[in-house]
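User: hey, got a sec? need Calx-beta domain-containing protein folded
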Amino acid sequence: MKNIFKAFGVLFVGLTLFFSSCEEEQIVYNPVSGQTLASFSTSAKNLPVPAEGNSVNIDITASTESDVARTISVEVDPTSTATPDQYTISNPGIAAGKFVGTITVEGNFDALPEEGATMLVLNLKDVSDSNDLTFGNETVTITLFRKCDEAPTPGEWIINMEDIYGDGWQTTTGNGGPGISITLSDGTVFEVGLCTPYEENSYDCTGFDTVFDSDAPDWTSGSATIEIPDGIESAEWYFPGDNWEEISFSIVAPNGNIVAQGNPGTPAGPIEIDFCAQ
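Assistant: Yep! Here you go:
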């Protein structure tokens, strides 16, 4: 029995020495003089840009500190689709004694595409006064796009309407049907369209309500106006359809810009308004 305890004691001492030697061989990271790993804090950012402009900050982390301010260097990757007039990059760098700095990307609303988005791809190239520099996440993609207020501009909106056959609108049936509807956030509903000579319209249409006659003025075109007051948060526009593929229309905002159009054959559904043009 004594021999068993003695053997166990020798084994315990040996294991203790083994683990002690392993602990002594561990490498302790040095945040001052060690190797510097630099990295973007993210690989992707969205930048919606309203008319008044917008910017996004992107952090760059360095694993070591420095007693002087450090400059961050980035370059635009050839895969970028954004043009230089669409953005501005500023590089404030990393302050002395700090591990994290930022770059700022600002979007230019006027230069951005009216529809869709554009991509700015940046590569992290250098962080000055950093020891034995290596990179982690060294690329970031910023997606820039216009962000427009979806509240309709207060004032007079004009809806211009045409029928290429010249017999008014037939939207859901061969004889007539509803017109374009506009539903405001306060519950107000407008309905506009060209009258048809084949049936009595259920709304205050534009045109004539007499039986079709070749001697009467034609039913080819007409315009309607609606007044959208201040404080309206949204307006939903809906087109009921084009039974004979003869109907076209355009919607003009108070500033005079055409913000939506429909051509003969446009299917029934919501009308997409270009809020950036209103």
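Quick note: Residues 27 and 34 are 11 Å apart (CA to CA). Let me know if you need anything else on Calx-beta domain-containing protein.
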